[in-house]
Specification:
single chain; mainly alpha; 7 helices; flat
């Protein structure tokens, strides 16, 4: 009697990373629910009083940019470094998982403390920089998981770049820098305008 083989469906690396993101996002939601509504209201980061104070805050965008650059580039640099090793398969999903977990936790916190306005506040707090951060980590994922990384380079750049992975890394680095700039200079304008209209 033959034992039937269990064959698991193959998923792309994009599907794998998306699955990790969703898994940790829901874990963040569960963690916030486990903490409880009373503690979120008491110790939550999105207390209406503190959020209201942001409308009158004066932000030194240059200092904030340098602060973000130091923090974001540390994580990105570590992730990019591990993408060239076998440990990257744990590091990249772990970093994305942490961001997803934090986002899920914040969504519940916002819903408990500020209802629908809080949800919009969380969405605005990650826009537009999240587009650039996603592109940067997508590039790292392409380096890590792409067996044959082929990139269509425009205007004859392929003659200059013999290694497409290097091009992906530099592109990811530029996306990361653009995201940090957006987070420091553009995102606070959106947030302050929204908070003043609340």
């Amino acid at each position: 009697m033959k034992i039937p083989r269990l064959t698991l469906p193959r998923i792309s690396w994009r599907g794998f990373l998306a699955g990790c993101f969703l898994l940790f996002f829901f874990a963040g939601i569960l963690a916030a629910n486990w903490v409880g509504q009373e503690k979120l209201l008491q110790y939550g980061m999105l207390n209406p009083y503190y959020v209201g104070q942001l409308a009158y805050m004066e932000l030194d965008s240059g200092a904030y940019f340098l602060f973000l650059l130091k923090r974001r580039m540390k994580v990105f640099g570590m992730t990019a470094l591990f993408a060239y090793t076998r440990f990257g398969i744990f590091v990249l999903p772990g970093v994305m998982g942490w961001y997803a977990f934090s986002l899920g936790y914040l969504f519940v916190n916002a819903l408990v403390c500020m209802k629908f306005q809080g949800m919009l506040l969380v969405l605005l707090s990650v826009f537009p920089q999240i587009l650039f951060y996603a592109a940067a980590y997508f590039g790292i994922g392409r380096i890590l998981f792409g067996k044959k990384t082929e990139v269509a380079l425009p205007m004859g750049i392929q003659k200059l770049w013999k290694n497409p992975k290097l091009f992906l890394l530099l592109s990811a680095l530029l996306c990361m820098a653009a995201g940090i700039w957006m987070e420091a200079y553009v995102n606070p304008l959106f947030l302050i305008r929204y908070i003043r209209r609340m």
